[in-house]
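From the shared-data thread, chain only:
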Amino acid sequence: MEDSVVTQAERIAGDFLQEQTKTSYQIIGKGITNQVCVVETKSHKVVVRMNDKDTFPSFIKEKWCIEQAAAVGVPGPEVLSIGIVDETAYMIQTFIDGNNGSDSTVPKSDVWRKLGEYAKLIHSIQVKGYGGNLIDPVHGEFQSPSHAGSDGSWQGYVQYNINSLTESDRLIELGVITQMESQRVRKLFENLKNEPFRFGLNHGDLSLKNTIVNQANQVVLLDWNAEVSVVPHATVAQLMHYQILGLEESASVEEFKAFMDGYGISEKDLSETRHLLLLRAFDSLRWAIDRSPDLIEPYAAFAKQVIDMIMD
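Structure, as tokens:
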């Protein structure tokens, strides 16, 4: 498998650069969703990221995000080309020399503080709409796919999750919430619906593994999984999510504080963040119940952890 991936990356890079490959290799373990290869020619060294052709819109979105972020002062790789060849969507980026943020000798809290600064800059980018699909790159308009019970708007998303809190709710049957807790959650969600949130662009996966610290000790941001949502809450909720799951890439208490300092927010500014985390946990669990039964158990366990944290 690896050979064919590398061969394909060589072909894609060679066609674009019009040069023979000198060396190439696959990067294993850092890019979760895409196959990632490094290809070096006489005068260029590039990263080729590949996935099946249906994911091409995510490359369009990522290219747009990297360019917008660079314009507000967030360093990233340069996107040289995106396209589709032989059923494969690809993105060619400049290779960033340096160490992955999780392996760098720079103190991790310093990298997290910088990520806090970057998050604030990213939230200043002009966007419209709500959701994870970039539907109009010219105007930076995003959309969320609608589904039964939700029109794809933020209000529709919250209302769908309020309407799902019924007496015959699967979440009660799964032991995630009790009937009484369901009533309390309904109030929390009603409050979210009436909150005058600001909407902004979110990177979607802020973590040390998605950074490179280059020779000048500059932190370079990679691998977007972007969406427009409430800011800064959605970004902070993502960090909390990783902490609750105990993921390797989650920020420690000290690193989380460094992130908040870099952004310039205090924890008391974020009372709604936990409620947003709960909303997302419930929504993901309902999605799993409808579409992906094998994920019900882990998603239910996570939702229960968030409930316990909030109801304390």
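Residues 100-311 form a domain with the Aminoglycoside 3'-phosphotransferase; Chain: A, domain 2 fold (CATH 3.90.1200.10).
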